[in-house]
Automatic annotation (TrEMBL):
Pfam family of the protein (one): TrAA12
Signal peptide stretch: 1-20
Keyword list, A-Z: Signal
Residues of the Pyrroloquinoline quinone-dependent pyranose dehydrogenase beta-propeller domain: 42-434
Superkingdom: Eukaryota
Annotated protein name in UniProt: Pyrroloquinoline quinone-dependent pyranose dehydrogenase beta-propeller domain-containing protein
Amino acid sequence: MHLLETLVAAAALLGVGVEAAIAKLPLPKSCTGVSAFRNANTVASGWSAMKIAGGLKQVRHVIWDSEGHMLVSQATRGISVHTFGADGCINSTSLLISGAQLNHGLALTPDSKTLYASSETTAFSWSYDPVTMKVSNQKTVVKGMSTGVHSTRAIQVVAKNPNLILLQVGSNANLDMAAANKATGRAIIKIFDISKAPSAGYNYNSDGEVFGYGLRNEIGFVADPNGVFWGVENSGDDFTRTENGNRRDIHKDNPAEKLNNLGDPMTVRDAWYGYPTCFSVWDPSSFSGLKTGSHFVLAPNSSYNDATCNGKAIAPRLTFQAHSAPIWNTFDDEAKNMYVTFHGSWDRQPATGFKVVQIPFTRLADGSYDPVAPADSMTGYKDIFSATNPSSCTANGLTQSNCFRLTAASWDPAGRGLFVGSDNSAEGEIYILSPK
């Protein structure tokens, strides 16, 4: 859920304005007991970075309750809750939910009274009290999600109707051709009305409605102030392209990772974004007549080719360097910028990613929000925080690296800036990136 929407809803319930809903806190220079950054990093001019928490376990997601407490999804450990002192540092930490199976998704309703989290196969809900920071009444709300290559399940609440949740499942292979069928429940985001959930929970594959599909691994998505969701998609690896019997390796800089405008879940259904047949161009030099952001197929022929994809599949609004592995995205408090965490590559030489990027947004005349850059731009975002030398970073498995593995991204309601997580298996960390 977009942070601003959460604050507005919480403030309305409390009968106060947004500014009064959560007290502002200072940005600390350092915090007692928190070790230095585990990995070397570079901070863009005009920004500062400090480490607010360490010693965590594979940080995946950070959210805020209506009291300003920070909830953290720690893969293979569970969900922790953290409070802050007047100095802006963490002054208490407790394990809210112990669950080794919980590995990514984390969301609250606007009133902070219902908490959702996900494992690879199941989405759960709890009643949550933001004052006492206690949970009760655990329920299974959705079950039967496919297991496979992509094990994380992003989950979000629709602020316009908090009974609705969005729940994502990625493909079960690099090229999962069966996922073209929505009934597989893969490479898809579905919508579930929790107020009508069966006592044993929905079945993911057969129940719910399709929000969007053809999304290889839409591992993060967030709403703008209008309730339109924007998702970041991890695309394929090790691809070749075959034209007229000629097979070429294109994997170094293609296909692009994507920023998709997923639309408003109050109205959008069955939107198709191309996977597993259509992919997006990053480096157009590998193609003829295509631009960055255009769709292409791996083996064009007379009946199904690039033009077919560009006529049928919804194009990304922006694209990112191939193999960056975007994990999560968030807006600042005025939705003037989106921030995206890049987990980093495992199959590209030199390596890429391992950074946080900023995407300038604007509000158009019709009131909608949109990136400033055109869809074919290769410069629509800029680095604000990165490994000192991303090209030398290694990625052994999902979380092992000699660099941080950036994951969570959440704008602080107390005004300190952008909270960013790392799930490096050596140490889970949370940083604050603050504009000066």
